[in-house]
Amino acid sequence: MRYRKLGTTGLKVSEIGFGTWGIGGVGEGWVAYGPTDDHESRAALERAFACGMTFYDTADLYGHGHSERLLGDVFKPLRKDVVIASKVGLLDQRGSKDFSPGHIRASLEDSLRRLRTDYLDLYQLHDPPMDLLENRPDVLDVLRALEREGKIRAWGVSVQSPGEAFDLITRWGIRCVQINFNMLDQRALTLGLLGLCESEGVGVIVRTPLCFGFLTGYYSEKTCFEGGDHRVLWSRQQRERWAQGSQIFASVRKDTDESMAQFALRYCLSYPGVSTVIPGMLTETEVEEDAAVSERGPLSAEERRKIEEVYQEHSFFVEREELRR
Prior knowledge:
The chain is an alpha/beta fold. It has helices at 38-50, 66-75, 101-115, 132-135, 137-148, 165-170, 187-190, 193-200, 236-250, 260-269, 284-291, 293-296, 301-313, 320-323; strands at 3-5, 12-14, 18-19, 55-57, 83-88, 120-126, 152-158, 176-180, 203-207, 276-277. It contains 14 helices and ten strands.
């Protein structure tokens, strides 16, 4: 496993991290990737650590705290050997939010209790409105206070779309951002965000590197997702577009000994502006497959060029007008 600096936060993380939305499970109106088995989830976390993964990303919202509890169960005796990031502010899947200083403090205490630790390595605002820091300077005040108190080592922002990160970096000096980036969604690259983060020393956490599983090659346009799986909420046209796009990108892959998922993860890690990628993993087998990516290294310049050309020649997002047809 290779490790990278998380910008100028002072944190060093495994370049393959563990996104824990999925292991939070489903229930009480919450959806993720369908039902899970806690025994299997704990085994996956333990295997991830054995494979050298040190970075684990969660949120108070995932499984209404269940994801954090699982991390606490597994990593309490290994706390100094892992980097744990959580999030605050997004209250439910309908988009309700609370970024008040009181809520940030209270939510942190709840997260620390579930994680069975007395500090977080990274605390992230979870999909805040773009004008939050301008309208609520007390948000920055409370985050800085928590850092001084030693309850968090660093803080950052998980943005809804890559374009929202520019103002956070250039105006507010944010040191770490979490963004969407994958072969089917290259906005962070085409907008110049990755280049900006690299030049400014901003840590970049890449979520959805497998585009909700569509870049694993396991799903086709005919795949039916069941209740409890958030992918049922996407339009049929969008699911078809992503499944077809995955097939197109598979044709670029030269090394047929690697899986499509490994190819997709190597693509994200080919850019020096990226600090870590956090695919979701539910089983030990998935963990081992993803962890093996690190030793393979980045894609060649030729492969990246072809991937970027394919992206420029196609549209992988369904526009609203198409949904009305």
